[in-house]
Amino acid sequence: MVKVMKIKFNFWGVFWAVAGMLYFFVPLYGTLDFSLRMVKGTISLKAYQLVLSDPAFLDSFRYSAIMGIITVLISLLIFLPTIYWVNLKLPQVRPVIEIITILPFIIPVIVYVFGMIRTFSQPPLQMTLYPFTTDILMVVGYIVLSMPYMYRAIDVGMRSIDVRTLTEAAQSLGSNWIQILLNVIIPNMRIAILSGALITFALVIGELILGDFLVRPALGPYMVEVGRDTAYQPAALAILSYALTWICLGLIQLGGRGGTSQQITGR
Amino acid sequence: MSFIELSHIHKHFSGAVAVDDFNLNAEQGEFISFLGPSGCGKTTTLRMIAGFELPTRGKVTLAGQDMTFVPPNKRKVGMVFQSYALFPNMTVAENIGYGLKIAGKPKGEIKTRVDEMLALIHMENFLTRYPGQLSGGQQQRVALARALAFRPQALLLDEPLSALDAKIRVELRLEIRRIQQQLGITTVYVTHDQEEALSLSDRIVVMSQGRVEQIGTPYEIYKTPATEFVASFVGQLNLIPIKILNLTERQVQLNGYTINAGRLAEKFSPESPCLAVRPEEINPGKVEGHNNLQGIVESIHYLGSIVRLRVEVHGSHFLMDLFNDQKLAIPRVGDAYDFHFPVDACWLI
Amino acid sequence: MNPSRRNPLISMLWDWIGVVPFFVFITAFLIFPSLNLFSGAFKDANGNFTFTNLNFFTDSYVIKSYITSLQVSVITSVVGGIFGFMVAYAIVLGRTPRWMRNILTTFSGLAANFGGVPLAFSFIATLGRTGFITAILKNICYNGADGSAVCPFNPYDNGFNLYSLLGIVLAYTYFQFPLMVLTITPALQGLKKDWREASENLGASSTYYWMNVALPILWPSILGAMILLFASAFGAFATAQALTGGSLYLVTILIGQQIRGDVLNNPNEGYALALGMVVVMAVCILGYTILQRRTAKWLKS
Predict the structure, then answer these.
(1) Is the pLDDT of residue C264 over 70?
(2) Which of A203, A187, A96, A205 is nearest to A150 (CA)?
(3) How many CB pairs under 8 A join A and C?
(4) Strand B31-35 to strand B203-208: parallel, antiparallel, or no bridges (unpaired)?
(5) pLDDT tens digits for C219-261?
(6) Which of A152, B74, C154, C181 has the most C-beta neighbours closer than 10 Å?
(7) Minimal Cα distance from C200: which residue of B?
(8) Cβ count within 10 A of residue C17
(9) Burial environment of residue A165 by CB neighbours within 10 A (0 to 12, 13 to 18, 19 or more)
């Protein structure tokens, strides 16, 4: 019995590929469809209009965006020198730091927030009393939550440029540490830094738990409230949120470094 | 009737031609090598015999049966891969017995056969080891045993020794030939190493860019290469541009010297005629009746048992290989040097 | 002038100065709060050391929430794991059209990150009472025996409820199976083509190869990936909260309520609960790391 050995495509392969695509797209399409049906009988962008013109939305988006930017900046400020130092002078510390950066995976966000509140909502460190100090707690929390991703992005970036040689070259030409970091190291790591920054930013925007429990006007709690009170706006918000995540992660892809092979947003 | 027959085999890969009109008749028990540089199509052709590639055109016949469209797991040809491809989760014994287990042979028979194979490759104590615990050479021997255990009708080897050290390579290739002759199994051996091909094969197929350049015994390939490619790929070759004096007499001129050539190559090109002579045919001194020339020694290379001289004759360069024995008088760089080679040892191409 | 040249001790201190801010930050804002929390698990209301908080395992709320969390985590790690494995197979080995593979790969990277509130909203919009799919199913009608329209496919009439365990499972699967795809793809890529060909060459069918060679080689990766999925589901909070408003008892939800101050009488039990969670997660990560090492042995590509 002669049978043709290879057909171009494998039936089962295609079957599961289609199943996967369906699971991805049906909810997305359903959300999109739902979000466009606010006005009965026609397709309209009314839900989006309502969301985008809601002052509470703009406030909370602004808040989260600002938080995101601050988080990125302070995070870079702390991690860049650290990773630089580890790569240059202290490779023996690397295992310790890697374990530390795994910790946010082992300590779920909810547990971490629990600990933060317990520690910082009682005297003498009663930071949850005032909005400003609570915001500090928020930024701190975001930095810790984004640590695995930011660390990995920067570390990968630094390992791919020969930090030691560049530093020695710069030193031989007379630079001090700060000059080296600013003029030599960081410009060569633009993509890695951008990558880490975008992931962190997406994480902060999508984060719910910190904002909810520390009672600050972040985007996450706003969305929960909208979900409680309205029907169509949540779907519009979901689409907007996906679009934003897409853009952030898409920019990273464009930049050339992966980074989407991990889970980042709060679940 | 030949045992393996490849008839007008063509293979295209989305536009690029990998194999172009390949024809071969291999007899039962023959050891055939496919020799050529990377990308010449030798592995692709081998894989078509095994069934991992489908020829775009042409027919593959094994033991008289048309196998062109038969799936690889029904062909009963044993293949040894370049990367050994031993199953890491199975012991040596389980690897070797794999083909037999699939064929549904009873446990006792499998055990006997596995022991037989282990004795054949001199690895009786390795029954329960895992591939990860073996050296490269040992893995390759197990791969060979695995390919032979289920009594295939032919044996195919895809550059099996290229990942091994030089010394092991020489040992193992002798092993492979010994086993092949002992079992009398028709074998196709793909390699880019001409020493392997020359020392092991009954016949060699020299390939270049998907085409067969020549099929012949090692002696034929080396002594009477049919094309310039074969001549320069197999062994070292001096290819010196010359001017034709008298084509019928095969008399040519090189910078003032008159040289007589032994024959004209099949693919002689009159626009750019060259003189071809093997380095080992050239010897120092002058001999009556041979082609005698004089040049300046340019460089001297010690290759162990061979000393290779590069001698310049008015802008043309001759490589000559001399045995590094007691009586060799090694010249110095810059010396004037007389050398000669027989008329029959050179040809025009 | 570099002081390190003067004094070896100063040189050593100088070496460490770069990492000090990091360690200070981590100690103050990660280590300290965590230890504080865990130590609370071993204290009673008066601050005295005790093990009694660990008796929370007898609290019915707690048991229920652990069981529910375990159910969700196991189900989604198995369902997500198998589904993800098949999709990863389709991408790596399945010989599917290139455009399908590209979409799946890109989307796996994206969807693994779609979680929390937007995901809950998506599922409400799709499978809620007035959702997209629900509406389609509701409208599949035909004329019944007595002439009136019969629409038997309304899921809610048939007992389906999105705001339940099933709903959570469906929603979690949305990010679980892409996570599986991302995690298992390197392992599948490490399956050498030669193994499959050698197996075919020796006469084996595709099924035999999978059962006897490929799956035995892959099982540490698969198991490790499923453990990762388990941990991912176990620690998830936002999706469940947004979907069910906290009505479904998961350990994370319970802890959330504990933070807000209700449910458990003894706040220290909440700390013990949190500690319990961390222990589970730590065991998972440990298991995953061990299995990854085993994998690397055979699948070094």
Answers:
(1) no
(2) A203
(3) 283
(4) parallel
(5) 888 999 999 899 989 989 988 888 888 788 888 888 888 887 7
(6) C181
(7) B73
(8) 12
(9) exposed
How many CB atoms are closer than 10 A to CB B207? 28
Task: Tell me the two tokens of residue B59.
Answer: 């027919």
Neighbouring CB atoms inside 10 A of B154's CB total 22
Q: What is the pLDDT of residue B95?
A: 93
Neighbours of B48 (CB within 10 A): 24
Rounded alpha-carbon distances, angstroms, from residue C140 to A40, B139, C137, C154, C158: 20, 63, 5, 9, 14
Give the integer Cα–Cα distance in Å for B22 and B188. 14
Please answer whether residues A17 and C100 qualify as being in contact, where contact means their C-beta atoms are separated by less than 8 angstroms.
Answer: yes
Return the amino acid letter for A102.
I
In single-letter form, the type of residue at position B214 comes to: Q
- Tell me the mean pLDDT in the region A122-133: 76
Examine the pLDDT at B214 and tell me if it is beyond 90: yes
pLDDT at position A101 is 86
pLDDT tens for each residue of B14-55: 888 999 999 999 999 999 999 999 989 999 999 999 999 999
Q: What is the mean pLDDT of chain C?
A: 83
Q: What is the ipTM of this complex?
A: 0.81
Å from B102 to nearest chain C CA?
6
Structure tokens that stand for A44 in this block: 């309209």
CA angle C262, C266, C271 (to 5 degrees): 90
Mutate to test the interface with C, among A114, A117, A181, A254 (most CBs of C within 10 A): A114
> Dihedral sign, CA of C22, C27, C31, C37?
negative
Q: Considering only CB atoms, which chain B residues are within 8 Å of A5?
A: 51, 54, 69-72
Tens-digit pLDDT profile for residues A51-92: 888 888 888 899 999 999 999 999 999 998 888 888 888 888
User: For C81-181, where are the E strands, in sequence order?
Assistant: 142-143, 149-150
What B310-317 contacts at long range (C-beta under 8 Å, 24+ apart), as own/partner pairs, is B311/B337, B311/B339, B313/B254, B313/B255, B313/B257, B314/B254, B314/B255, B314/B256, B315/B255, B316/B240, B316/B241, B316/B254, B316/B255, B317/B238, B317/B240
Q: What's the count of helices (H) and strands (E) in chain B, helices before strands?
A: 8, 22
Identify which of C29, C32, C51, C61 has the alpha carbon closest to the alpha carbon of residue C268: C51
* Residues on chain B bordering chain A, Cβ-to-Cβ distance under 8 angstroms: 51, 54, 69-72
Of the listed ranges B30-44, B158-172, B239-253, the least confidently predicted one is B239-253
- Number of alpha helices (DSSP H) and beta strands (DSSP E) in chain A: 12, 0
For the purposes of burial, counting CB atoms within 10 Å of the CB of B300, is it exposed (0-12), middle (13-18) or buried (19 or more)?
Answer: middle
- Under 8 Å CB-to-CB from A187, ≥6 apart: which residues? none
Q: Give all chains having 3 or more CB-to-CB distances under 8 Å with chain B.
A: A, C
**Cα–Cα distance, A234 to B330 (Å, whole number):** 92
Please say if the pLDDT value at position C295 is more than 80.
Answer: no
Asked if the bond preceding A234 is cis, omega within 30° of 0, the reply is no
Whole-angstrom CA distances from A21 to B139, C90, C104, C233 are: 42, 11, 7, 22
Chain B residues with CB-CB distance to C204 below 8 A: 73, 98, 102
Return d(Cα C250, Cα C254) in angstroms, integer. 6
Which chains lie within 8 Å of chain C at 3 or more CB pairs, if any? A, B
Tell me if C23 sits within 8 A of A101, measured CB to CB.
no
Nearest CA in chain C to B88: C298
Angle, CA of A233, A235 and A239, to the nearest 5°: 115
